[in-house]
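call fold target=Polyprenyl synthetase family protein
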Amino acid sequence: MQELDEKINETLDILIENELLIGHELRSMLKIFKEEKKAVGYSFGKLCYWHYEAFVDCLNEDIYKVAAAIELLILSFDIIDDLQDKDSDYSWTKTPELSLNVALAMLVMASRTIRETSFEHKSAAIQILDDYALRSINGQQLDLLNTCRDEQSYLQMIEQKSGSLTAMTCLIGEVLAKGETSSDVNEYGKYIGIIQQIKNDIQSLKTWGSKNDLLNKRYSLPIIYLLSQKNDVSKSVISYYNDNIDAFLDNNATKNELTNGGAIRYAITIKNVYKLKALNALENVAINEVYTDYLKKLMK
């Protein structure tokens, strides 16, 4: 796995260095942002690569370019998300106006990189990239509007925002290999994204600081559960969310209610429902044991 990360990183370096239509400043920022991405690994690029390799007999080296292109798109979305949420300390948040141009450049480079490969089915891959990226953007819009305040609408939102990107990655690898996609790959790809988002939502509430969803009056599964309870803590949180000037938020009581009142357990239960769905879909896809184990780790 480490070798694949290194290969994707090397390919990203080449793509950035060889892009003739950007100047020194843009290129420098691209390199800096890419290095920060390198620290967390290239999980999306690896998913694409493995779903390509699983269905071919002879490897086309251009798959590394596609994996790198996907990482460019994902990083551009991460940058835009952080600029919108204003809750990150990555370097791109220091100069948001300039960083937005870098993100836009990454989006264009991602699509063009795939278009310039030698794959027979690259047009189908670009179509998947376009469709699923737009679905994710729509989900991000819904998330920013902060109007998904019940279980069903919230799950539909994160399916679009997060599930679309993981499904996209798996499907692009598959379509480049086979010229077609399968519903099972789409399903477990989508569910992996939902699982990861729910895990992030839970983690957000474990740190009582600037990134905490509750303190920022955001909605997530644990918070939706908490707000549905008829007790003193839920009432105080509702008042806090409604900007009631008399609202008093007892941090210790709220943290205790989230942890011991069932909110976190509820979110974990929903996550495990999607894990079961993902595992059922995965059983129908012929991917080798090493890759299957990695996919299962993403579902935990």
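return ok
The longest helix spans residues 151-178. The chain has 13 helices and no strands.
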